[in-house]
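Course exercise 7: structure representation. Students receive a sequence record and must write out the corresponding structure in token form. The form below is the worked example handed out in class, using Mg-protoporphyrin IX chelatase (421 residues). Read each field label carefully; the graders check that inputs and outputs are placed in the correct fields and that the protein name is recorded exactly as given.

STUDENT ID: A-19
EXERCISE PROTEIN: Mg-protoporphyrin IX chelatase
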Amino acid sequence: MASTVGTSSTAILASRYFTSPTSKSFIHSLSVSTGQNCGRKFYGGIGIHGIKGRSQFSVSSVATEVNAVEQAQKIASKESQRPVYPFAAIVGQDEMKLCLLLNVIDPKIGGVMIMGDRGTGKSTAVRSLVDLLPEIKMVAGDPYNSDPEDPESMGIEVRESVIKGEQLQVVMTKINMVDLPLGATEDRVCGTIDIEKALTEGVKAFEPGLLAKANRGILYVDEVNLLDDHLVDVLLDSAASGWNTVEREGISISHPARFILIGSGNPEEGELRPQLLDRFGMHAQVSTVRDAELRVKIVEERSRFDRNPKEFRDTYKAEQEKLQQQITMARSGLSSVQIDHELKVKISKVCADLNVDGLRGDIVTNRAAKALAALKGRDKVTSEDIATVITNCLRHRLRKDPLETIDSGLLVIEKFYEVFT
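STUDENT ANSWER:
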């Protein structure tokens, strides 16, 4: 259920330093979101052949255009899907929504971990992000969503085709969001190899898994702190290398697995392994709203959605479209955003003074600040941008002190103002 986050102590402290009209209007604009733009997928050249002694059949279908009948079928299929709660309708939760938007703008930030009380709209907010995801270029029919222009995001077959100089069929498709169930098997996540077909026909018959489907998209794990250790190891390996390798019976197959990792969970149900927690670029905390009037508003909005989802979504259509355009413009303008060397030095000084292990905190803070500047429509990062994101980038990277009573977010923001002012 959508909810609001109460005014945190970090937000109160930050508001004392940055109270410009621009920043206030931007905070309020986070509740404005954009509509969805249905992407199209084309599949072609799929052939299946039986082995000796069995019935043989083949399927070959190459789609070059979508006619009116196919369009009607896609629309009907889309309308039959379970409706998603609009991102714009989520009341409050500005910290969580900002982290999600920044990762869509710059996937290299590394994802976001959302921790908070149960029933505060964590999974609702993540799944509502589907409507805002922009379209990307991909090779038609490729199971790994290969980027026709980036060799690091290409499957091996596509890369070989590029080396041979073959013409690739390129289509536009929406960024994909894949749910990773807690009870999923390792084969379902990584993919499986058909050993019988490999032995009888001498080919690498590989059935892609969830990691292949999530390449260049979003991999969402609800209740990530309850995930089995063997799946955590798989995620760590893929997140570190950007590739997934399947080894079965002497056969090895690799494919790109670069995804935005989003996790949510309740801290009361257990801590996350430090190795996996460090892989999340940002960390957002949500809490239950205490204001009675806001709670009533949230209940009423959710009741309206449950009563008539289509009508409820239509009321937020304009706001959804506005934010989607804002995201598209931010993605296109991200490469032109600059950050002064002086600000980079101060960011690294904050990380060093807080004894943050490694350099991932420095990198993520720089990327998040640039993504925020692009979201605001600027080409230069300011101290205000850094102040907005640095807590989310460093909070989960501080070493745990069992005797420490101060929230780690407050430690980060206090050190920030000590260095920057």
